[in-house]
Each structure stands twice: as structure tokens, then as C-alpha cells.
Write a structure and sequence with these properties.
single chain, 2 domains, alpha/beta, 7-stranded mixed β-sheet, Nucleotidyltransferase, domain 5, Rossmann fold, about 20% strand, 20 helices, 8-stranded mixed β-sheet
Length: about 550
């Protein structure tokens, strides 16, 4: 019996508890194995790879020098990766995304696979690369491959560790670690790429360029391995969405193997029987006792809990002390564009400084009983974006957001405030949205407020701070918790929401609140812009609701 079929049967029968994504993926694989078409399962081919790993790759930790023993879920993965081929024995899968909880053997497994691909894949001059945002992370898999080689009499006889790579003289192949700051990643001729800790990557260029670097190979492989992370809206989220859409059938990609080990709901972390959903190596690889200790600590330490939820159970969560939980902040609802016309609204803006992120907001209701709708546009100067691109860990995937239309990149070194004005004007002219007031930070507006007034906007100064913001800051939280604020699935606002924590001040027995960043390198401009709009609306709430009611009656 094949490992794919054995594992598929176990997860479908409940012998191994698995989430819906793993069940769906292995149901597809089992069906393809039993009913071959364009591709068929050749276990002789996959067994050659599995046998190589278990025979020649030796443990470098624990019982050093002992054979590496693969678990069933790992054998099923490798059988699927290498065993599904066409009639010319060309592999079906060119990319394998494998997301598991931490300490489930990802790095060790990929080290062994890299050695197998170097020596045992029939490719001339294979180039295998470990890549991550930082060279230290990329070296984890590479260094493990070096240690495996040293503990294996066979591999150490035929492979040579050089200054920066592992070299196989027989086919002139190499294994090498790379960092994201290497120039022209797509110029490499990669046979296989291991993208390590995809969840920590904010600049998807790393993934895109290295995937492109495999284009001239006969049957290349890209492996993306990761646990979840606190970075939202980046390549990890994009790959998870792509994989889930593929499993649902809305995306067609027969070359993508998606293995997403995660809890299905946040409540499951409290019940030990569900832990294996995110930790397929629980027991043989990841010690149950250690996870039990982490869970107990998380129950008693709210600051530690997000780390356990994200890193051990692959759940989305923002960092401790956050204003909103991730499930409160995330809202995938999109209000139809055709209905976002001819409405009264209130504007807000956080101009920041001319060389940093700026955000413009429109807040509106289409009817009194309906949800709040938030429209936003972000602005960043090109020079600042270039600086961020050079960071080892860019603060956010701004290039992607610019491509998607959420962000306007302003030429030069400064945000052009006329671009901000132009956006408000376009909302009026193109969508017939009518801002009754626009709230702005009185300390940073400069000539921009005068320019907006010249276009007929009623500008209102907002004294940003705890005294002004306390009530307007508390009120939207309940709206977000009720998912009563629709922001068109804007990833930049979601990112800002999850970067925001509450700073509380007590004066004369009254608690005041204001938003601050969770960390100094995080941005909350979208929240500040929205808060200025909300504060302005609350100052004119009765008038605004009357205007919404009048517009609603006209439509009737």
C-alpha cells in the first residue's frame, strides 16, 4: 500500500485527526492515485528518494549518526512530491507548500531532501538553495545538511563542504544558503529552492524571483516551509489563500501541493486531542510534554498566549496588548462597488510627514441600520519605498499593495499632498460620494487644508490625543467586534489594526485611551486616519444620521 493512500485513509477515517485542508488535499491525491489520468503514482520513483534519505542521511542530534526515520505524514508528502509523474516520468508537482506548527521537523526534513536532490535526482549540475530573509535563517537548513553529511560515511566520502556550499563532484551540483538581500535572485539556475519561514517574509520578491530562477530546469521543485507569523497581508497569507482556493476549486493548479496543518478554530487549542491538526509530528518529533507546558503557561500569561496560538497551532493572531484580536479585526466582506455611489460620508486623513506613510479615509453609511463602510487610500514616496526594499525584513509588502491598488507611490522623496486631494476629489466626481466634513490633524496640515477648502471641502481640525480620542476610540472597537465595519478587505487597514495597541491614562479618576504602535517599526496610520474620520463624525452625529436618512428616503 502506498504512503499516500495509507495516510489518506487514516485522516479520512479519523485515526489521525486532521483539518479539512489536509483531508481535502489527500482526498485528491488518493483519487488521482486510484484513478490515474495525465499523471499516475509511481511508488518505485518515490521510494528511491525516501530510501535514500532513510539510508544515507544520518541524525546530527539526539542519537548522532543514527538513520533518519521519517514518519508516515512525511513519507506521504515525499511520495506525493516525487511519485506523481507523467508518462515520461516528469514530476507533476513543482511547488510544495508545507505549513506546520513549530518544532515538527521541517528543517531536518528539508536538509535531508536537499541532499537527496543533490545526489539522487538525475539532474546535471543541480543548484539547491535555502533562502530566507536573513542568512542566519537560511543557514539553519544548510547547516543541518552539513551535519547530516558529516555523520554519514557514504555522504562524507562523496560530498565536500566548501567555504559557502556543499559540492558534489560527480554531477557538479551544490547546496547553498542565500539571503534576501542578494542581488538578482532570478539570475540563478535553481533546480530546487527551499524558502524557509515564509511567514516572516514581507517582500514577496524573494519568492517570485527564486521561483522564476527554476524556469529552465526539467523538473524543478520549490518548497515553502513555515509556521505562522504575526506578519499579515504578506506572501504567507497570499499562499494560504491560494492553496485554500485551489482546494475549493476556484483556482486551478495541478502542480501545487498544499499541506496546511492548522487548527480549524481558536477554541481547539484548549483540547489536547486537536493539537495534532497543527502538529503532525506530535510525539515522535515534537514532545507532547513541552507543548503541554507551553499551553499551561499561555492559559495563565495573556502576553504569551498569542505566541502559542500562532507558532504552535498556526492560527492567525496579533501580538500581545493589541487593541483587537485577529478574529475581531479580520472582515472579508466586500460591499459591491456599484452600490458605493451617491452617499453622504465623513472624511479623515493622517498626513504623517511628507516622507512617510499617509492615509486618506472616507467613512459612510448607506442606511441607518446598515454597517459602516470604510474606503481608504495610502500614499508613500518612492524614495522611502526603495529604503524599505533594502531592509533585511521590510516592514510591510508595500510593492504588492501598490500593485493591488491600495497604495499610491509618489515620485521623488515626499508624499505629494496634491495626490491626497486628488483622491478625495475623485471620490466626489467619480462615485458621487459627498464628504460633509473632513477631519485632519491640526498640527500637520499646512497648506493642504487650504487646498482642500479651495475644492469646497469643509475641513475640521482634530486635536489628536487621548483627550479627544478616548470615546471615539472605544466606540469603534465594539463595531469591529460585531463585524459592523466593512473595509473592503483592505490589507493595509487590517495590518494597521493588528499593529495597534491601547495606551491608557488615568487622570482624575477618568480612564483615557489612545492608539499606539505595538512595536516601533509597525504602522498605525490607517487607524489614525479612520479615527480622525470617526471623531469628526461623532461631533456631527445627529446631522450626519439625518443626512443618511434623507438619502435613504430618496432611494425609496
Amino acid at each position: 500500500m502506498s504512503y499516500v493512500l495509507e495516510y489518506a485513509e487514516a485522516v479520512q477515517d479519523g485515526k489521525i485527526l486532521a483539518n479539512d485542508y489536509i483531508k481535502a488535499m489527500y482526498s485528491r491525491l488518493a483519487d488521482e492515485a486510484l484513478n490515474p489520468g495525465k499523471y499516475h503514482l509511481d511508488t518505485d520513483i518515490s521510494d528511491a528518494h525516501i530510501d535514500f534519505i532513510e539510508t544515507f542521511c544520518k541524525q546530527s542530534q539526539g542519537v548522532m549518526g543514527a538513520p533518519l526515520k521519517l514518519e508516515l505524514f512525511q513519507k506521504a508528502k515525499l511520495e506525493a512530491t516525487f511519485g506523481f509523474v507523467d508518462d515520461n516520468d516528469i514530476r507533476q508537482f513543482t511547488e510544495v507548500d508545507d505549513f506546520r506548527g513549530r518544532k515538527n521537523g521541517k528543517t531536518t526534513e528539508m536538509a535531508a531532501v536537499s541532499l537527496d536532490l543533490l545526489c539522487n535526482d538525475g539532474e546535471g549540475a543541480p543548484e539547491i538553495y535555502f533562502i530566507a530573509t536573513k542568512i542566519d535563517q537560511a543557514k539553519k537548513g544548510f547547516d543541518e545538511a552539513v551535519r547530516m553529511m558529516k555523520h554519514s560515511p557514504f555522504l562524507s566520502k562523496h560530498l565536500r563542504k566548501r567555504a559557502s556550499d556543499i559540492y558534489f563532484q560527480y554531477n557538479e551540483g551544490i547546496i547553498k544558503p542565500l539571503a534576501s538581500d542578494v542581488k538578482k535572485l532570478d539570475s540563478y539556475n535553481s533546480h530546487a529552492v527551499v524558502v524557509d519561514e515564509l511567514g516572516a517574509i514581507t517582500n514577496r520578491r524573494i519568492y517570485d524571483d527564486m521561483k522564476q530562477s527554476t524556469s529552465s530546469r526539467r523538473q524543478p521543485l520549490v518548497f515553502c516551509i513555515s509556521t505562522n507569523n504575526f506578519v499579515r497581508g504578506g506572501i504567507y497569507d497570499a499562499q494560504v489563500k491560494y492553496g485554500i482556493d485551489m482546494l475549493k476549486g476556484t483556482v486551478k493548479d495541478e502542480h501545487f501541493l498544499f499541506l496546511y496543518y492548522a487548527l480549524m478554530s481558536k477554541e481547539q487549542w484548549l483540547d489536547q486531542k486537536y493539537w495534532i491538526m497543527a502538529n503532525p509530528g506530535l510525539g515522535p518529533i515534537k514532545r507532547i510534554e513541552k507543548l503541554q507546558q507551553s499551553v499551561e503557561k499561555a492559559k495563565q500569561d495573556p502576553a504569551y498566549k498569542p505566541t502559542v496560538l500562532v507558532k504552535d497551532f498556526n492560527l492567525n493572531e496579533n501580538e500581545n496588548a493589541a487593541w483587537l484580536r485577529s478574529d475581531e479585526a479580520i472582515n472579508k466582506t466586500i460591499f459591491p462597488d456599484a452600490d458605493l455611489r451617491d452617499a453622504y460620508c465623513v472624511g479623515g486623513c493622517d498626513l504623517s510627514s511628507t516622507y512617510d506613510l499617509t492615509c486618506a479615509t472616507l467613512l459612510l453609511k448607506k442606511n441607518l441600520e446598515g454597517p459602516w463602510i470604510v474606503l481608504q487610500k495610502y500614499f508613500l514616496p518612492e524614495s522611502r519605498l526603495e529604503e524599505i526594499d533594502k531592509q533585511n525584513e521590510p516592514e510591510a509588502p508595500y510593492r504588492l499593495w501598490a500593485e493591488q491598488g491600495w497604495l499610491t507611490v509618489c515620485e521623488g522623496t515626499q508624499v505629494r499632498y496634491t495626490d491626497v486631494t486628488d483622491w478625495f476629489v475623485s471620490m466626489v466626481r467619480e462615485r458621487e460620494l459627498r464628504p460633509l466634513w473632513v477631519g485632519y490633524d491640526r498640527a500637520l496640515a499646512g497648506y493642504w487644508a487650504e487646498e482642500m477648502v479651495s475644492y469646497g471641502f469643509d475641513m475640521e481640525k482634530i486635536a489628536q490625543g487621548a483627550k479627544t480620542w478616548t470615546y471615539p476610540f472605544k466606540s469603534p472597537k465594539a463595531e469591529f467586534q460585531a463585524h459592523n465595519i466593512i473595509y473592503q478587505d483592505n490589507p493595509m487597514l487590517l495590518w494597521c489594526l493588528m499593529n495597534t495597541r491601547v495606551k491608557s491614562l488615568n487622570a482624575e479618576g477618568i480612564e483615557s485611551q489612545m492608539p499606539v504602535k505595538i512595536k516601533s517599526n509597525k504602522r498605525i496610520d490607517g487607524v489614525v486616519s479612520l479615527l480622525n474620520a470617526y471623531t469628526c463624525m461623532k461631533g456631527h452625529e445627529e446631522e450626519y444620521m439625518q443626512a443618511v436618512q434623507m438619502a435613504e428616503r430618496r432611494e425609496e
